[in-house]
Amino acid sequence: MSDLSAVKALVFDVFGTVVDWRTSLITDFIWWGKGRGISTDWTALVDGWRAVYSASMDDVRKHPERGYVMLDDLHRRSLEKLVEQFAIKGLTEADLDHLTKGWHRLHPWPDSVAGLTRLKTKFVISPLSNGNVALLTNMAKFAKLPWDLIMSAELFEHYKPDPETYLGAAKLLCLKPDHVMMVAAHNGDLAAAQKYGLKTAFVARPTEYGPLQKIDFEATGNWDIVARDFGGVADQLGC
């Protein structure tokens, strides 16, 4: 393990790393659909929704003249297309809002809250997510995530892996990039963070995509920490 004595803050990817978005959304929508008498393949819809996640953010990058669009709005646009694709009829505006805000109601992985609580005793901890501020704040209340503050791509008007996100987080914390550690279950996120000078910690979440998972089963880069879960990160950082 490299020298991490200068690290003062840990910033976390959230979707997939801190919370189990797939199981949370599928379970939420199945029960909601039963109550509303709406039947569809919710698993396929959730997987389809996440599949267009990156493309929706890429569209924002390609068209800066249109201005930054926060993730809630991107999710809503993608959902409307999926509702039409799945031929789901009778949804009201309130229904579409409820489904979109399913991303605000995600459950943490079993180790997340306890691990974050341990890490918080020694470090400033914050999300560094593509989710917007309201989404991340509501999620933290719902999932009891003990963040010290909320940092979102929305603050920088750039989505990860743009450098403005990683360097912007360090700047807001008044820290040098190498005094900040990015924690993620995605090797690509860590590669970008490392490129811009942050320290890195990998935690595998091999069930994030269920049977659709194809990558990120294990660390593929030279990360500063590789751990089984957040408790393992805390162990290696002396918390």
Automatic annotation (TrEMBL):
<dbReference type="Pfam" id="PF00702">
    <property type="entry name" value="Hydrolase"/>
</dbReference>
<dbReference type="InterPro" id="IPR036412">
    <property type="entry name" value="HAD-like_sf"/>
</dbReference>
<dbReference type="InterPro" id="IPR023214">
    <property type="entry name" value="HAD_sf"/>
</dbReference>
<dbReference type="InterPro" id="IPR006439">
    <property type="entry name" value="HAD-SF_hydro_IA"/>
</dbReference>
<keyword id="KW-0378">Hydrolase</keyword>
<comment type="function">
    <text>Catalyzes the hydrolytic dehalogenation of small (S)-2-haloalkanoic acids to yield the corresponding (R)-2-hydroxyalkanoic acids.</text>
</comment>
<dbReference type="InterPro" id="IPR006328">
    <property type="entry name" value="2-HAD"/>
</dbReference>
<protein>
    <recommendedName>
        <fullName>(S)-2-haloacid dehalogenase</fullName>
        <ecNumber>3.8.1.2</ecNumber>
    </recommendedName>
</protein>
<dbReference type="GO" id="GO:0018784">
    <property type="term" value="F:(S)-2-haloacid dehalogenase activity"/>
</dbReference>
<comment type="similarity">
    <text>Belongs to the HAD-like hydrolase superfamily. S-2-haloalkanoic acid dehalogenase family.</text>
</comment>
<dbReference type="InterPro" id="IPR051540">
    <property type="entry name" value="S-2-haloacid_dehalogenase"/>
</dbReference>
<dbReference type="InterPro" id="IPR023198">
    <property type="entry name" value="PGP-like_dom2"/>
</dbReference>
